[in-house]
Each structure stands twice: as structure tokens, then as C-alpha cells.
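User: Quick one: structure for sequence A, then sequence B.

Assistant: Sequence A:
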Amino acid sequence: PSNWNDSGPRVEVVEVVEFLESAMAFGGSDVPEVVSLSFLQNLDQGDKTYARLRSLMGQSLKHELQRYETH
């Protein structure tokens, strides 16, 4: 099943993004690098859900995501 529907992201997607945001902000010193390399680096900017997923991110994830974004 899709992680998105006409009304927006599935609850699970929102919960994962919120968990990662919390981990980035409050996790140990190695956590941001793990999240960055295992999740953010692998997001496909060309995917149709990229902008929607990005809009769910908080400041910590968006700040780190900028390392990988091409403009």
C-alpha cells in the first residue's frame, strides 16, 4: 500500500518523521550522522512525494537535508 493517500501521509509516515526529528534534536552525538547517512542521503529529490515528506520535517532534519539537496 502507498504511504500517501489523497488526504495526506499515513500516520506511520508522520510518526517516523517525528521520531527522526526528535532523534536528531535530542539523540546522542552519533545519532545525527546515522540519520543523515541512513535516511536523508537516500531520499530521491525526483520522487513525487519528496516535497510532501520534506514538509513534514522539523528544523533539525531540514537543516541536515540541505547537505544533500541539489538546487
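Sequence B:
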Amino acid sequence: SKEKQSQEQHLGRKTILLLKIAPDMEPQQACYIADQCTTHHFDGLIISNTTIQRMPNMKSTASQEAGGLS
């Protein structure tokens, strides 16, 4: 993207853009995200160490937050 190129030019080095996603998402979601990452020139995906599932016995205050948990 133009923003990424501008930042790289300003910093004088390549900026690596990664997206962390949950490994337990639906296949359709994963395909959509992979397609968008390709379209928008992401450098890679991190697909581990997070979940979108919530266990009923979770005691963490983060259990009520939306999104992935590590």
C-alpha cells in the first residue's frame, strides 16, 4: 500500500506487516482473510497461540472481550 511504502521510505528500511489470526476460525473466514492479505500485500500470517473460543469455566476478566485470546 502507499502508506506502507511511505513508511518504509521514511524509515529507510522495509516494514514487515504480519497479521495474527486464530487457528480455530471457520474455513470460510480463513480463506477470506488470506485473500485480503494477498490483495493488500501482507508479508505473512501468524496462526497460533490464540483462540476465539470461550470455555464456560474461564475465570479471566478477558473472557468477556471480543476477539482472540492468547
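The mean pLDDT is 78. The chain is about 35% helix and 10% strand.

User: Thanks, that's what I needed.
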